[in-house]
């Protein structure tokens, strides 16, 4: 996609490519705990973060956005997709806004998202499934990044599949870094309650 290759981007660094945390699923995150920690805005990628690639919003996604609304979060969909895809998803989940053709990994979409939500880098968290667009962009914008495993891997457009191979190499380095890194910021998960 042109947004990946044409965005004005700084050189890659280990810090920009590694997420602050890497977990199995968006739906494992304990958003109530994050709210207690001071977060007020959540930016989500859509495809393979919330639902399989190009799938409509399902009951689980709808329940998540309702939960976020009840907790008090501002939520925003940040996608490189065209407007019809993102708008349809937004209308189904209701409790969010959206930015389409966001130009990730460029930082402009992330900054615009925070402006729309009335948050800043200290009160915003990003959740996505790709290193070379989602995580890289969030980190460069100064936002806490949480990478999730793709909902349905390998059922994607060819350029995304190609990036998955590159990401696999980066994730090998991340696993070592996670053992010794000092800035791993574990996101609270529903399974970690009571620990």
TrEMBL record:
One of its GO terms (cellular component) is cytoplasm. It comes from the Bacteria. GO terms for molecular function: phosphatidylglycerophosphatase activity. Pfam families: Hydrolase_like (PF13242). InterPro entries: HAD-like_sf, HAD-SF_hydro_IIIA, HAD_sf, PGPP1/Gep4. This is YqeG family HAD IIIA-type phosphatase. It comes from Pseudobutyrivibrio ruminis.
């Amino acid at each position: 996609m042109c947004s990946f290759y044409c965005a004005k981007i700084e050189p890659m660094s280990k810090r920009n490519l590694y997420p602050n945390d890497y977990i199995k699923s968006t739906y494992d995150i304990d958003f109530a705990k994050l709210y207690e920690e001071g977060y007020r805005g959540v930016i989500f990628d859509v495809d393979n973060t919330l639902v399989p690639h190009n799938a409509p919003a399902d009951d689980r996604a709808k329940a998540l956005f309702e939960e976020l609304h009840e907790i008090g979060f501002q939520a925003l969909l940040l996608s490189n997709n065209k407007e019809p895809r993102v708008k349809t998803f937004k209308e189904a989940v209701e409790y969010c806004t959206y930015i389409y053709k966001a130009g990730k990994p460029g930082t402009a979409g992330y900054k615009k998202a925070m402006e729309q939500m009335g948050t800043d880098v200290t009160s915003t968290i990003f959740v996505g499934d790709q290193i070379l667009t989602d995580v890289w962009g969030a980190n460069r914008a100064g936002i806490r990044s949480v990478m999730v495993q793709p909902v349905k891997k390998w059922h994607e457009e060819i350029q995304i599949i190609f990036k998955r191979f590159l990401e696999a190499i980066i994730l090998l380095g991340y696993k070592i870094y996670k053992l010794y890194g000092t800035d791993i910021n574990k996101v609270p998960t529903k399974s970690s309650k009571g620990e």
